[in-house]
Design a protein that fits this description.
The complex is a heterotrimer of chains A (424), B (298) and C (280). Helix content of chain A is 48%, strand content 13%. By secondary structure, chain A is α/β, with parallel strands linked by helices. The chains are: A alpha/beta (424), B mainly alpha (298), C mainly alpha (280). At the B-C interface, helix 1, helix 3, helix 4, helix 5 and helix 6 of B face helix 1, helix 3, helix 4, helix 5 and helix 6 of C.
């Protein structure tokens, strides 16, 4: 009896072991679950599985970019092969570069040349193509077309105008009985999203990008101060105090449920706002973010996602193939139409089907082409810390724990300390 | 065998037996607790990074930077305030609940079970439950308070720096008051009923009885509850991280250390912060143990 | 009604109100979670106390979006293993600490208790290096190993306290007969301590089930996560405006078995918590 049991166990063990060898490759991909992203990821994954006969496991990651990076860093530091393909933010090239394989060796040059050159450049680290461009992002302003029309207002061109209009709409809506209505929602939590919002405010006032491309700290200047002061003045007046804890989805939740007049967010929110059952369907307009002064620059922060392959992956060739498939022309077109994710291939911006689904891809093309990058290239491995210095100080100003002047000074001081006085 | 040698051999055999039984447990503890802590303290004196690579000894540089870091001191202040507030609230509420449960009434078993439930639930779940109820736009707490006229407009409980710590204390208190209540209840049940009788005979009102009879006899249980809760509060991580993330206004020392360690990959600096926290908790433990006379009881 | 009777009635009524307030305080958040989990879309923002049109979509969505069943299994596996290992190691240790007299016994006991006071973050970086070297990263074994840091001291402390309270005569007879310590433990102490071990095991199980920081650090991919991490990381992937419905559904799924445990073993839990503190 004992012996039979042992033999059975051995057989089972052998079968499991052999099964592992005979199976096709199983690739694990970590893609974001923001908005529609998970469904879109599944679409691409299933198509690739059918085409190649391999299987794919999707790993979900936190929505917050900061938390997601922490997850990746732990995994890579442990040399784990648990995830093969990573969805990485465009600003993580310098941080994760050392742990990713060179995709330039797996993807023909012609494919890479079809992408926006600026994005390919941002994805290159020490000559290595760290990730394949998947979608690009620039912050945009969403507004309630119906409410602006109702109160005879036009889409704002400056931040001050936005402030005035938001206050008017909020007051009138509340008088009409909508007690939960607010004028303006954005990403105010102390995390990477706030770095983007802050960059947009500051750069649109002509205040620079916190760290110049040569490494010099430019955070403390009068224009930056004006920008931060304006943003701080909105909290509690036209923006709910809870905005201090909002990420992308929280702001979208308030706007999409019909409780806000203006929202700053990424383009992905458009597809969701237009989805059947959305309370604000066909009532939303999209425009470039306002500028600080009349005629000044309209700045959207450059964001975007790419796909990278870990150097600890056990199936680099298959993983690279999956990454290439997911970032192909066909997949990017699908994502543009069904999720309003901006493609990284210029040709797609002239595709009629894409433009029909998201008209603002055409009208806002200059915004996407001119999006301002965060200082990740110059800060390299220290980008995390620099971003934390930026968003912590801005958050303090928004929350009122520091005056805008003190916040800007603190930001500059911290950046100097981290960079050893500009020597990143 | 002469008696003295017999006793000596017996003692030696007892020591060996004790060693044999303790060895496996101590070995595991050494691997799981002692070695990692020592390693962390070692890291604190190096410039190690999370991704591995060479870690050079840099002396006390991490500690010096830490003591000059304003965010570290903010975290220390947050932690101390959190500890003071949560322990006081839990002691007070726990006392009320314990006194109520001490009265044998019909269904007190069910009430006790209901009171234990918040303690049994994961901190993450309780943090999410309360974060939803305290939501600034859609939460029920704001809806009720504004509807009842107690608030002029909704408050962003978790987001606003003024109320962030208070919200976190509230959630922590909700979850751990049961523990304090149970300890105090056990202590109350050990007080003989005739003491109350005697005091009542002397004409003492409920207030006087509480101060003169109950509280002094409850001192050991209260002290134990305070020790455990204070040490837990100083080490707090879960509730603050899940509710408020890396928000600098509510960041505790544990959250700060983790941010340095995991998000900034600076193992040296993060370990230095963790070491300081460790030292603080050790000092507080020793003070409490000495003051509470636990040393004698062991 | 005379004044004394009135005062007594008022006191009784006041007491009832107090008990009701305590019950409300302890249980309302769960009730609200259940109500919220049965709502979807814009109905989530409603503040009516009763679920007027219950919707079960959130529960299905929880299991669809993540391998939640697998997460629950992970939690059960880890907690069970940790409890078994802790109890096995602690029994012998409790015998040594509770029944044998040797130099440094008190110091050792206090040191073991001291270990349970270690901040988890103080152990994290050292533990991360250890887990990485053992190749246990992103497996439940990493958690089984690391959880021992707080379950072992607790089980040793409580079992020692119970062991000390057992009368001396029990083993004296066995020692006279020349029985070896292992036999004494197995034959005499184990049966007597069984209730205490069940209690301690239960408390250690709940503590392991609820642990968050180590689980967040050492198990990252969906299928390896335990329940607390899975709930904390529920992504917002929903066509609806807010993911709270699903978060509440997941919370309810996790809470119900724990409530059942508490109701079934209420007395044990209370005894265990107080024994560790008061007796020790």
């Amino acid at each position: 009896m004992q012996r039979i049991r042992t033999i059975c166990l051995l057989c089972i063990g052998l079968l499991i072991g052999l099964g592992g060898v005979a199976r096709a490759a199983e690739i694990a991909i970590a893609c974001s679950g923001l908005g529609e992203e998970l469904a879109l990821c599944k679409h691409g994954v299933q198509a690739w599985e059918k085409a190649t006969g391999n299987t794919v496991k999707i790993v979900t990651t936190p929505n917050s970019a900061t938390a997601r990076l922490a997850l990746y860093e732990q995994l890579l530091a442990a040399g784990s092969h648990a995830i093969d393909v990573f969805q990485v933010d465009i600003v993580w090239t310098g941080i994760l570069g050392p742990d990713m394989i060179d995709l330039g060796k797996y993807v023909p040059h012609s494919v890479i040349a079809a992408d926006f050159p600026r994005i390919v450049e941002a994805d290159t680290w020490h000559g290595k193509l760290v990730s394949l461009p998947w979608f690009t992002n620039a912050g945009v302003l969403y507004y309630r077309r119906d409410l602006l029309a109702k109160y005879g207002l036009t889409p704002p061109q400056t931040w001050e105008q936005l402030g005035r209009e938001a206050a008017i709409i909020q007051k009138r809506q509340r008088e009409a009985g909508d007690s939960r209505f607010w004028g303006y929602v954005f990403q105010g939590q102390a995390y990477e999203g706030l770095t983007c919002d802050a960059l947009e405010w500051v750069a649109s006032y002509g205040g620079g990008t916190f760290v110049a491309p040569d490494g010099k700290i430019t955070a403390d200047n009068p224009n930056a101060l004006k920008a931060i002061a304006w943003a701080a003045s909105t909290v509690g007046t036209i923006a709910p105090e809870g905005v201090l804890n909002y990420e992308e989805e929280d702001a979208r939740g308030v706007f999409q449920s019909g409780n806000a007049a203006f929202m700053r967010n990424w383009p992905y929110a458009w597809a969701l706002a237009q989805s059947p059952g959305s309370p604000v369907r066909d009532k939303v307009g999209v425009e470039p973010l306002p500028s600080g002064t009349v005629g000044g620059p309209h700045v959207g922060a450059l964001g975007g996602g790419n796909l990278a392959v870990s150097r600890f992956s056990r199936h680099p060739a298959e993983a690279a193939s999956l990454a290439r498939f997911m970032t192909s022309y066909a997949e990017q077109k699908y994502r543009a139409i069904h999720g309003s994710f901006n493609p990284t291939i210029p040709a797609l911006y002239h595709d009629p089907e894409v433009l029909k689904a998201s008209p603002f891809f055409g009208t806002l093309l200059p915004t996407f082409e001119g999006a301002v990058a965060r200082p990740s290239a110059v800060t390299g491995r220290l980008y995390n810390r620099a971003a934390a210095a930026i968003f912590d100080s801005v958050h303090a100003a928004l929350a009122g724990s520091l005056s805008p002047r003190a916040a800007v000074a603190q930001m500059a001081r911290e950046l100097e300390r981290i960079s050893d006085n500009g020597r990143w | 065998m002469p008696p003295r040698r017999a006793v000596a051999t017996l003692a030696r055999r007892r020591r060996l037996t004790a060693a044999a039984f303790l060895a496996p447990m101590l070995a595991v503890l050494a691997v799981v607790a002692v070695w990692p802590v020592l390693h962390t303290i070692w890291f604190a004196f190096t410039n190690a990074e999370l991704g591995g690579g060479p870690a050079d000894f840099i002396g006390a540089r991490n500690f010096i930077s830490l003591l000059a870091d304003p965010q570290w001191w903010r975290s220390v202040a947050n932690t101390l305030i959190f500890a003071a507030l949560s322990v006081s609230v839990e002691a007070a509420l726990g006392m009320v609940i314990a006194l109520a449960l001490n009265r044998r009434f019909r269904g007190c078993g069910l009430v006790r079970a209901a009171v234990i439930v918040p303690w049994a639930v994961p901190t993450v779940v309780s943090a999410k439950l309360w974060a939803w109820m305290l939501n600034d736009v859609f939460g029920i707490v704001n809806a009720v308070l504004v509807g009842a006229g107690l608030l002029a407009k909704p408050v962003a409980w978790v987001a606003s720096p003024r109320t962030a710590l208070v919200s976190v204390v509230l959630v922590d208190a909700w979850k751990t008051t049961p523990f304090v209540a149970l300890l105090l209840l056990a202590g109350l049940q050990m007080i003989p009923a005739d003491l109350y009788e005697a005091a009542r005979m002397d004409g003492a009102g409920p207030g006087r009885i509480f101060l003169a009879v109950t509280l002094p006899l409850l001192r050991p249980a209260l002290l134990v509850a305070l020790i455990f809760r204070t040490l837990d509060a100083l080490r707090v991580f879960d509730v603050i991280y899940v509710m408020a993330g890396d928000n600098p206004a509510s960041m505790s020392m544990s959250v700060f250390a983790r941010q340095q360690l995991v998000e900034f990959q600076d193992v040296g600096y993060g370990s230095a912060a963790a070491t300081l926290l460790f030292v603080l908790v050790a000092i507080v433990t020793v003070i409490y143990v000495r003051a509470g006379g636990l040393w004698q009881e062991a | 009604m005379n004044r004394r009777a009135l005062r007594r009635w008022a006191a009784a009524a006041g007491f009832r109100v107090l008990i009701a307030a305590i019950l409300f305080y302890a249980l309302f958040p769960f009730y609200w979670a259940v109500v919220s989990s049965l709502r979807a879309g814009s109905a989530l923002f409603g503040t009516s106390l009763l679920p007027l049109h219950p919707v079960w979509g959130n529960y299905a969505a929880v299991f669809r979006a993540e391998p939640f069943a697998r997460n629950i299994l992970n939690s059960v596996l880890v907690a069970t293993l940790v409890v078994l290992i802790s109890l096995t190691l602690s029994l012998g240790a409790a015998y040594a600490l509770g029944r044998l007299r040797f130099v440094g016994r008190r110091m050792l006991l206090m040191s073991i208790l001291g270990v349970s006071m270690f901040p988890q973050i103080a152990v994290l970086s050292g533990m991360f290096a250890l887990i990485r070297r053992l190749g246990l990263y992103n497996t439940p074994w990493a958690l089984v190993l690391s959880y021992l840091i707080f379950t072992l001291p607790f089980t040793v402390w409580v079992l020692t306290a119970f062991m000390r309270d057992l009368p001396r005569e029990l083993e004296e007879a066995a020692i006279m007969d020349g029985a070896r310590p292992l036999t004494i433990i197995r034959r005499i102490f184990l049966p007597l301590l069984a209730p205490a071990m069940a209690t301690t095991g239960l408390l250690a199980f709940i503590a392991s089930w609820n642990e968050f920081l180590f689980a967040l650090t050492f198990t990252l991919t969906n299928s390896e996560r335990t329940v607390p991490v899975a709930i904390a990381l529920i992504s917002g992937a929903s066509a609806y405006e807010l993911p709270w419905g699903r978060i509440m559904a997941a919370s309810v799924i996790v809470t119900l078995p724990l409530i059942a445990l508490v109701l079934a073993f209420q007395n044990r839990i209370v005894a265990g918590l107080t024994a560790g503190a008061i007796k020790g």
